[in-house]
């Protein structure tokens, strides 16, 4: 199939359809709404379920119901909507049914704005809902990557009976770029052996997240943890760019990683030995790989579109082996490649002595940039 | 062990749609009656094996244990949304929710209203006992004016805590609803009427005639601090005047149906 100029959100929705999504339930919210609109048109055409729910709360509980039947079910939303869904997400996790959730992140907290952000890192990567569970989190940096990850998300969700979040941001949701959609997959004919479908000729099944005896809950949570440890072993994904001989490693995910990639290219032209490490799975996080990098390079620069959330995970892994510095724009502001290039130059020519935590040092520098109208 | 004499006719037994697990309900609670009525209807219609129930949060949180059919357990108030998700991907199955007044008329108000508005082909069994039973007797959206609960210890003061909500009347205004009635479980005559209503609600769903709900006035002797008998009397004397029994919306296809 040839490449076409595709709009992010529409392409993601079509990718979900081609991955065999049989139930979409959502609520309009910028900057993810085109996802819902595409589903509204396409799902009924194919005889599949589409409901515009009365709220994100209802939408995720519709996903929950549909997922209990073993059909591939999903929703797409943006930051404030995802906050509303957290109750249902926790129930889905506790019931161990697969579901795919797209978060086209925007600036926050609160109502915030509709511009691209990565401020939901903690909420998405660390769980977000109540209780002991671990979601899988994928972070695309382009329309094509998001298309590919949505198919992968359904496969991983089914394989591990897990929630899979795909966290894009407003840039990737709204941009148009050349991309290729996968062929239409065949729908699963037989429901999985745990699904509720009506107890025809078999013993009844029930699906719930209730374990009233704490011992049963403990056993369940340990089962979830062991499954998570399997996921950590097998499902880590990342991309590397010029990392082989790098003395400085830039680490960024999603759009921030993509902008950093352009900056790394420019820096290489200047002869700076810098590479990019871009986690694709934010959960499971590529811990071993970052640890290896911390033994290879002289310095790490973390770039994010938030206040330095992944930064905390990275400093945890690096354990002070090499200095870690940070550069971020936030609140819906996307950094330009030049900004990151400046940071790479600074890290090489005038590195911080790390007398303060990377976030504090960055904040001091950022204030000058913002005051300068940068 | 009792054996049935050869000439005896078996006239009463546990419906196949009940599992036989002893319930945790308090003595005198009418949940057991409501469960049995639903189970008898599923048996009579021969739909147990294609039915998926949706349990709520509240006293009937363990309903899935007591019914012998596929079941899921919803978050508090979200049963109609969960039922919607199931029904939309499995439209030939029978889906019903079983919800209490806190679940349906307070935290789940948006979900129930919109499920009805969309005309979801699901059935809702609504247990209205005017109180939060599971958490120990707090004021419910259906608590009567003046009624004492642990969170309205001086009696529900309508100036401060508002008025009871009449869900059957409200939902009957929804164009998507096909069958909306209120019945009571406080005596045998009303229990028989309640069973017929539950049958008609499921018949509505089987014919794809839209959203159906049976509101059942129920007793909670434990939290009302009454004996079971007094509690049943309370339903007849105090609840029925506030929540009048009757058919609030019955579409013609169902009104003409003989069951």
Give a quick set of tags describing it.
heterodimer, A: alpha/beta, Rossmann fold, 2 domains, seven-stranded mixed beta sheet, five-stranded mixed beta sheet, B: 259 residues, two-stranded antiparallel ribbon, 11 helices, 9 strands, globular
Describe the structure.
The complex is a heterodimer of chains A (374) and B (259). By secondary structure, chain A is of the alpha/beta class. Chain A folds into 2 domains: 4-234, Rossmann fold (3-Layer(aba) Sandwich); 238-371, Rossmann fold, CATH 3.40.50. Chain A contains 13 helices and 15 strands. In chain A, helix 1 runs parallel beside helix 2 (33-45), helix 3 (56-68) runs parallel beside helix 4 (79-95) and helix 9 packs across helix 12 (337-349). The longest helix of chain A has 21 residues, at 214-234. Chain A is globular, with a radius of gyration of 21 Å. The model of chain A has no long low-confidence stretch (mean pLDDT 96). Chain B is an alpha/beta fold. Chain B has one domain (31-255): Rossmann fold, CATH 3.40.50.970. Chain B has helices spanning 31-45, 63-66, 79-89, 101-107, 109-117, 158-161, 167-171, 188-206, 221-224, 228-242, 252-255, and strands spanning 51-55, 70-73, 94-100, 123-128, 131-132, 138-139, 177-184, 211-217, 246-250. Chain B has a 7-stranded mixed beta sheet with strand order 2-1-3-4-8-7-9, with helices on both faces. Chain B has a two-stranded antiparallel sheet with strand order 5-6. Chain B starts with 30 loop residues before the first helix and ends with a helix. At the A-B interface, helix 3, helix 4 and strand 9 of A face strand 1, strand 2, helix 3 and helix 5 of B.
């Amino acid at each position: 199939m040839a490449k076409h100029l595709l709009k992010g959100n529409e392409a993601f929705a079509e990718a979900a359809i081609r991955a065999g999504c049989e139930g979409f339930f959502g609520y309009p919210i910028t900057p993810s709404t085109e996802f819902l609109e595409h589903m509204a048109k396409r799902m009924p055409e194919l005889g599949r379920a589409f409901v515009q729910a009365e709220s994100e709360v209802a939408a995720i509980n519709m996903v929950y119901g549909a997922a209990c039947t073993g059909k591939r079910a999903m929703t797409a939303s943006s930051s404030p909507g995802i906050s509303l869904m957290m109750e249902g997400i926790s129930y889905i996790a506790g019931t161990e049914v697969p579901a795919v959730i797209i978060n086209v992140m925007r600036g926050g907290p609160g109502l915030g704005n509709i511009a691209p952000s990565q401020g939901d890192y903690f909420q998405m990567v660390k769980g977000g809902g109540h209780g002991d569970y671990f979601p899988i989190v994928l972070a695309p940096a382009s329309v094509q990557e998001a298309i590919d990850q949505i198919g992968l998300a359904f496969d991983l969700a089914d394989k591990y009976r897990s929630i899979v979040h795909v966290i894009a941001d407003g840039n990737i949701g709204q941009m148009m770029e050349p991309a290729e959609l996968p062929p239409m997959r065949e729908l699963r004919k037989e429901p999985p052996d745990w699904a509720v479908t009506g107890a025809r000729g078999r013993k009844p099944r029930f699906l719930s997240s209730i374990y009233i005896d704490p011992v049963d809950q403990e056993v369940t949570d340990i089962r979830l943890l062991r499954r998570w440890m399997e996921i950590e072993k097998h499902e880590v994904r990342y991309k590397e760019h010029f990392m082989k001989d790098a003395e400085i490693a830039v680490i960024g995910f999603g759009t921030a990683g993509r902008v950093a990639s352009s900056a790394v290219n420019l820096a290489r032209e200047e002869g700076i030995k810098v590479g990019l490490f871009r986690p694709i799975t934010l959960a499971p996080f590529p811990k071993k790989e970052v640890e290896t990098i911390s033994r290879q390079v002289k310095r790490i620069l973390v770039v994010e579109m938030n206040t330095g959330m992944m930064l905390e995970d990275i400093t945890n892994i690096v354990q002070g082996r090499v200095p870690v510095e940070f550069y971020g724009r936030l609140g819906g502001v996307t950094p330009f490649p030049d900004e990151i290039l400046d940071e790479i130059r600074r890290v090489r020519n005038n590195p911080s002595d790390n007398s303060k935590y990377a976030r504090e040092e960055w904040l001091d520098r950022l204030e000058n940039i913002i005051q300068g109208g940068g | 062990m009792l054996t049935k004499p050869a000439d005896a006719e078996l006239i009463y037994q546990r419906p196949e749609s009940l599992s036989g697990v002893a319930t945790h309900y308090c003595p005198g609670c009418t949940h057991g009656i409501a469960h049995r009525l639903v189970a008898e209807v599923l048996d009579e219609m021969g739909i147990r094996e294609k039915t998926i129930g949706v349990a709520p949060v509240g006293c009937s949180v363990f309903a899935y244990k007591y019914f012998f059919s596929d079941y899921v357990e919803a978050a508090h108030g979200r049963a109609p949304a969960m039922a919607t998700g199931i029904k939309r991907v499995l439209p030939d199955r029978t889906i019903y929710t079983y919800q209490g007044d806190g679940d349906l008329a307070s935290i789940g108000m948006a979900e129930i209203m919109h499920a009805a508005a969309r005309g979801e082909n699901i059935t809702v069994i609504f247990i209205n006992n005017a109180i939060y039973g599971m958490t120990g007797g707090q004021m419910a959206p259906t608590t009567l004016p003046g009624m004492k609960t642990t969170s309205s210890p001086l009696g529900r003061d309508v100036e401060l805590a508002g008025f009871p909500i009449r869900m059957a009347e409200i939902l009957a205004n929804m164009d998507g609803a096909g069958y909306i009635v209120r019945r009571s479980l406080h005596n045998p005559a009303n229990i028989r009427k309640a069973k017929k209503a539950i049958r008609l609600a499921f018949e509505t769903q089987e014919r794809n005639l839209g959203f159906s709900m049976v509101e059942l006035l129920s007793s909670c002797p434990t939290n009302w601090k009454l004996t079971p008998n007094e509690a049943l009397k309370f339903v007849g004397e105090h609840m029925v005047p506030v929540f009048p029994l009757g058919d609030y919306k019955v579409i013609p296809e169902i009104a003409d149906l003989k069951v």
